[in-house]
Design goal:
The complex is a heterodimer of chains A (279) and B (439). Chain A has nine helices and eleven strands. Chain A is α/β, with parallel strands linked by helices. By secondary structure, chain B is mainly α. Chain B has a two-stranded antiparallel sheet. The chains are: A alpha/beta (279), B mainly alpha (439). At the A-B interface, helix 3 and helix 5 of A face helix 8, helix 11, helix 12 and helix 13 of B.
């Protein structure tokens, strides 16, 4: 218990106080979202929101419905019911292209990269730089890729190789660089640090701080609280497709959040959702 | 003792690495693909082998010229098959599409276009070709639509297409053979008239050399502009020199093939030339279908490497889900690949119809297998995502070399089929080993 308290006071200054401006419309608001696969309610009446410059950690066990919920936002799945609002306006998201039009970029757990082409081709996939002749400007794309990757992962050298030859961390940095390159307003990161070593994890943490400064909203999806607790302003916990509750990270301890994930028990500092354990 | 063993254990791998590092370093500097090197090696083995077995008739200008013409039709289709297979699809219907578009072109030419435009009109051949291209586009588009938008597997759709379009070819002309009426169109098939002669062949070679040099200079300059590492100059000169030698050698070979005496005499009469006492020496030069094949290859390589469409084709093959998530309209790209394949089948139909001077019902039968084999032997992975246009063109040449060589040796058709089938399986097996090693 005392160690937990120490950790919290330790990381207190990192959060300052909650400086997120929540007075305007939410960057994203997902209202009462449900989706079922063959009779199983993967997501059941879930609501979450995200404000500019805010990092919201979406936590839960494997199969809790967090990845499914977020795939609805990124357009990979079509919801059965519920509404999505972007900056207060109702948004129509039927496919990944729609989501991108709203500035929603996703970094998938499986790292959705085309394994057979190089890093630059992956960074610009779908939005290639063209020459005046209407042909691919590979040199310009590689130069841009070197710039972005230099910021993110200065040791990266393997620009000419297909990405399947890269390590997990290198692939992760390609995926993150890809999202940054396209000026994402809303960034979804699915298990962002799961495949990374300590140094690369620290790089991702620095990067998230940079992105916050630019008023980008970030959803971090994880089943491991330790991966994301220190990075987030707010935590939302899901269990069995429902939201257990949400809380400002400064108002709860890691143990309390673990209780939410494992038991569905909502601590005093959190706002209970439909999935909270009934007393 | 233990010291000695540990010593050898340490030095042996290091030495092995050093020698391999030298050769690997050479390959990396010159950016020569080992697979391509292997294929050229295989081709040379086949050529020399047949040359010896046939008692010196294979590596003659006449046979090599014929080989180039025979490769053109399947080679044109193989360039499209690369993109089809790269997107994790297959097209079993190309031989039948060739059959039906060839038949449609012949009927359109003899029954409609020649009467409409006049017997000697220079427009007939291009109009015929356009009719064929549109038919190929529509057929490919229909199959592509069913595959991409209705979700029927390409194997089934094109297997159906194999029967449907073969039946269609019969139906267009009730199974008759339709002789072509337009002489200009027949030039697309090669032959003594359908070749460009020595002078034009050298002009073509010069243009090709200028093109190759300019492309190398432009690539070098582009990489310099962004301060990327560039090939060492010796490697640049070596690869450039080898390609230039290949161009010159090919031109010398096609120019060394002379018109037979009666044809030369007829040519002299037509052009009001006096026959010198020693007989007239007139070179064939490059055949028009071969130039068409090279042109198609360049265009297809350009599409695959330098356009957004080509990039999407490879991305879809590498990871269809990632391509979809990147906002690529994968269905449209898939359909367009099949449309392109249909058009290439129509070009191949024009070449083979012109070569036979008529459209027959059986034309293009089994061509789908030779086309797929050419693409696969040329390094296109059936798992999708990998393949090159140039490789498929070489693959087509390998397949055709095998076939022509066996004909030259007087082998029976059943035995030819057995050899071709076995070679295909062995080639893919070797490729599987290569991929496993390099992965």
């Amino acid at each position: 218990m005392s160690t937990t308290m120490e950790q919290i006071t330790d990381h207190g200054p990192a959060h300052h106080h909650d400086t997120i401006d929540r007075s305007g419309p939410a960057l994203v608001q997902m209202e009462d979202i449900s989706i079922a696969f063959g009779g199983i309610h993967a997501v059941d009446g879930a609501s979450i929101d995200l404000y500019p410059g805010e990092v919201v950690a979406l936590l839960g066990h494997n199969g809790a419905g967090k990845s499914t919920l977020i795939k609805i936002l990124s357009g990979a799945y079509k919801r059965d019911s519920g509404e999505i609002y972007v900056r207060g306006d109702k948004a129509t998201i039927a496919n990944p292209r729609d989501a991108k039009a709203y500035g929603i970029e996703t970094i998938y757990q499986t790292l959705a990269l085309a394994d057979n082409v190089d890093a630059a081709a992956n960074l610009f996939l779908g939005r290639e730089i063209m020459t005046a002749w209407g042909t691919l400007d590979d040199a310009a794309m590689e130069a841009e890729a070197r710039k972005v990757m230099g910021r993110l992962n200065p040791n990266f050298r393997r620009f000419k190789e297909p990405v399947k030859a890269l390590s997990g961390g290198q692939r992760q940095s390609v995926a993150i660089a890809r999202a940054i390159l396209f000026n994402a307003k809303i960034l979804i990161m699915d298990e962002p640090t799961a495949a990374l070593g300590p140094q690369e994890t620290a790089q991702v943490a620095d990067l998230i701080k940079e992105l916050k400064k630019e008023d980008i909203g970030i959803f971090l999806i994880s089943h491991d609280i330790h991966d994301v607790f220190d990075l987030s302003d707010r935590v939302v916990v899901m269990k069995n497709g429902q939201v257990v509750g949400s809380a400002r990270t400064e108002d709860v301890t890691k143990d309390e959040v673990l209780g939410m994930i494992i038991l569905g028990k909502c601590p005093p500092g959190a706002t209970p959702g439909p999935g909270a354990m009934k007393e | 003792m233990s010291e000695a063993t540990s010593d050898t254990a340490l030095t042996r791998p290091a030495a092995g690495n050093a020698t391999r590092g030298g050769f690997k370093g050479f390959l990396r500097a010159t950016e020569i693909d080992t697979r391509m090197l292997g294929m050229i090696g295989a081709l040379l083995v086949i050529w020399v082998g047949f040359h010896i077995l046939s008692g010196g008739t294979f590596l003659t200008p006449r046979n090599l010229w014929n080989l180039s013409v025979q490769t053109a039709s399947v080679g044109v289709m193989a360039t499209g098959m690369v993109l089809v297979i790269v997107t994790r699809n297959i097209d079993l219907s190309v031989g039948s599409i060739l059959g039906v578009t060839g038949m449609i072109m012949a009927v359109a030419q003899t029954q409609y276009l020649t009467p409409m435009l006049g017997y000697d009109s220079g427009l007939v051949w291009i109009a015929t070709l356009i009719v064929g291209l549109i038919c190929g586009l529509l057929i490919g588009g229909l199959q592509g639509f069913i595959i991409a938008y209705l979700g029927v597997p390409a194997f089934i759709v094109t297997l159906g297409g194999l029967l449907v379009w073969r039946g269609g070819a019969w139906w267009v002309a009730s199974g008759r053979t339709i002789p072509l009426t337009d002489d200009n169109f027949k030039l697309l098939g090669g032959g003594s008239d359908g070749s460009i002669g020595a002078t034009w062949s050298w002009i073509f070679a010069a243009a090709a050399i200028v093109f190759i040099v300019l492309a190398a200079v432009a690539a070098r300059r582009r990489r310099k502009r962004f301060n990327f590492t560039i090939k060492p100059i010796w490697a640049e000169i070596l690869t450039l020199g080898l390609s230039l030698i290949a161009v010159v050698a090919a031109t010398m070979i096609v120019n060394a093939y002379m018109l037979p005496a009666p044809l030369a005499r007829r040519y002299a009469e037509a052009h009001n030339l006096t026959v010198p006492p020693g007989g007239l020496e007139i070179s064939f030069g490059y055949a028009i279908p071969v130039l068409l094949f090279i042109g198609v290859g360049i265009v297809m390589a350009f599409i695959a490497r330098r356009t957004r469409f080509g990039r999407y084709v490879f991305a879809i093959g590498g990871n269809p889900e990632a391509a979809e998530l990147a906002g690529i309209n994968t269905k449209r790209v898939t359909m367009m690949v099949f449309m392109l394949m249909g058009m290439l089948a129509a070009i191949a139909a024009a070449i083979s119809t012109a070569r036979l001077s008529s459209a027959t019902n059986a034309q293009g039968t089994l061509d789908e297998l030779y086309t797929i084999a050419a693409a696969v032997i040329g390094g296109t992975s059936l798992a999708g995502g990998a393949g090159t246009i140039f490789g498929a063109m070489l693959g087509a040449l390998v397949m055709q070399s095998l076939q022509s060589g066996m004909v030259l040796l007087g082998m029976d058709t059943p035995l030819q089929n057995i050899v071709v089938g076995a070679v295909l399986v062995v080639a893919v097996w070797l490729d599987t080993i290569y991929r496993r090693r390099s992965a």
